[in-house]
Please model this.
Amino acid sequence: MKTEQEKLDRQLEHFRTRCAETGLRVTPQRLEVYRELLRAADHPSVDMLHRRVRRRLPTITPDTIYRTLNTLEKAGLAVRVSAVGNSARFEAGLVRHHHFVCRACGGIYDVYSKRLDRIHAGKDLPAEYRVDTVQVEFRGICPSCAEPHPEC
Ligand SMILES: [Zn+2]
Model:
């Protein structure tokens, strides 16, 4: 069985390999943003990531987080998941999956499904559109928001 540490080491190794392949320097900012994406289960926004990364890099600005995410996204190390309200949300995106987005709390939950993975655009799009990937996004109400809340 792999320990959490071994898993993290493997993921950081992947990060270094991708940086080398795409000619990116491994900077403390990029490393910390990526590390935080790996750790996060909640598909954080720029502001959420900024609050977390700032603990280790106190001078980092939201703008740097934003630019770092764009750089990581181009290198295939970060994925822009969905926009909830006005803010884009991100994840490390290691294994292919789909999402459920709660319209009440903005929570984003991962959905792993071989059946959904098999969906192809096929003839739904004109041939000139080259599809890289298909991702399904369910929208609705998550179980904790569906629970009746007692009146105050
Ligand atoms: Zn996800």
The longest strand covers residues 79-84. The mean pLDDT is 91. The first helix runs from residue 4 to 21.
